[in-house]
Amino acid sequence: MTIPVILSGGSGTRLWPLSRALYPKQLLPLTGEKTMLQDTVLRLSGIDDCGPVYCVCNEDHRFLVAEQLHEIETDIGEIILEPAGRNTAPAAAVAALLVAGKHPGAAMLVLPADHVILDSAAFSSAVAAGMAAAEEGMLVTFGIVPVSPETGYGYIRASFSGETGNTVRPVLAFVEKPDRETAMRYLSSGEYFWNSGMFLFKAEAYLQELEVHAPEMLASCREALGKAVKDLDFLRLDAAAFGACPSDSIDYAVMEKTARAVVVPLDAGWSDVGAWSALWDVQQRDEEGNVKKGDVLVHDVRNSYIHATSRLVTAVGLEGHIIVETADAVLVASKERVQEVRTLVEELKRKERDEVVTHRRVYRPWGSYETVDFGERFKVKRIIVRPGAALSLQKHHHRAEHWIIVRGTAAISIDEKKITLGENQSTYIPVGTYHRLENPGRIPLELIEVQSGSYLGEDDIVRLEDRYGRL
Description:
With 471 residues, the protein is α/β, with parallel strands linked by helices. The chain has eleven helices and 30 strands. A hairpin with a 4-residue loop joins strand 18 (321-325) and strand 19. Helix 6 packs across helix 7 (215-226).
C-alpha cells in the first residue's frame, strides 16, 4: 500500500497578491478549476493501491484544507496540525510515525501541495518505477529532467551509464543552486536533475534514518505526537514539544546523509510555481504569448500574465509583464524581476498591512465575510453562511450590529430570544448581548451586517460556545 502524505504548510509569498498568509497558493485555483491542493490529491488516482491521504498543514488553514479535501471526496487518514512551521523533515517524521503505527510496511509518497504536474500519467509511471526500490528500503526522490539552465533550483547528481526513462539511479550528490554557467554544464551532462522535493519511502526506513542522522528531531516529533489531541477532524500536535523540534528539510536532515538515497527521473511538465513567471510558463498562452485570466482587455501586449479577479483590467503596449489585480491590491512587475515580490511582502509585513495576511473576503469554517465599506465608528460586511452552518455564540464589548437578510433563512438567538428571519427582514444586536447566527436552510444564507461602535476589530469577540472548537 502507498500512503500519500501531502505537505501543505507553505505561505507562497512570491505569488502575492493572490497568495496571502491566511490563503496561500496551495489553496488557490491557479491553473484550473481545482485548487493546487485538490489537483495534488486527484493526481493520486493513477497510483496503484493508494491508501488514505495524510495531510500536514498550518493550524490557521485547517478549515480550508478540510473543506477542500471533502469537496473532492478524499479518503482522509488524518489532517495533522503544525503549531509552528518546522520545515519538511519534522512534518514527514510525524506522518511516518502515524503511518508506521497504522499501516505497517506501507510506503509513504511525500508530496508538496503546491506543485504543478501537467502529465499525470508520467508522474504515476515514475512512482511505479520507484516503488521496487522503496520496498527494498531505499529512500527515493524524484529528479526533474531539466529543460533549461535553471539557477533557481537545487540539483541532484545521479550515476549515469546511458540509462533513459524512469530508471532508478543512485544519488551521488545534492547540489545547491548554481550560477548560470554551472547550470548550463549540468544541463549538457545528463547527470543532473532539478530537485523536486517529492519522496517515496517506507515509513520505517525514514524513521530509521532519522534515528541515525537527526535523533533530536525524531524525539521531539515522538513527544509532540504522543501529547497530541484530537480536535474535531484534526490531530493537533503538542505546541511545546513541536516548537522545540529542530527545523530542517528532508534533504538536509536525511537525504544528503543517508547511503540509501536513489533518484527516479521525472519528465512530466513539473513546476513548483515559485513565482509569477513560472505560472506563465505552465499555462496556455494566446497568439501574442499572453496568459489572461478574468475580465482582461489588452492592445499591443505580448508575453505577459494578466489576472483580474474583481474588475476590468486593461493594458496597452507592454511586453514581458505581470499584472495581478485583487479587490484590495494590484501588482505590476517586469516578468524578469518577479522574485522581488517577496521584498514588497516584507515591507507590507513591516508596516503591518492587512493585505499581506488576508484578502478582503475572509473565510471561516461556517462560510465567509467581506468588508464592503468602513469608516470611523462603522463597518459594513457581506456575510455568507453555508447550509447547516452556524457562527459561534458570542458577544461584543464595543459594537452593536444590524443584520439585513438578503437571501435564505436565518435562525437567530439574542440572549434568550430566538427568531427566524427571511429575505428583506432585519434585526438589531445591542452591545453586550449574546447572539448566534445559523443557517437552517438548504441554500447559502446571505446578509448585510452593519457594525457601529467605538471599536470594530475582529478581536472584539467573546465566544461562549463554538462547534468548530475556536473558544
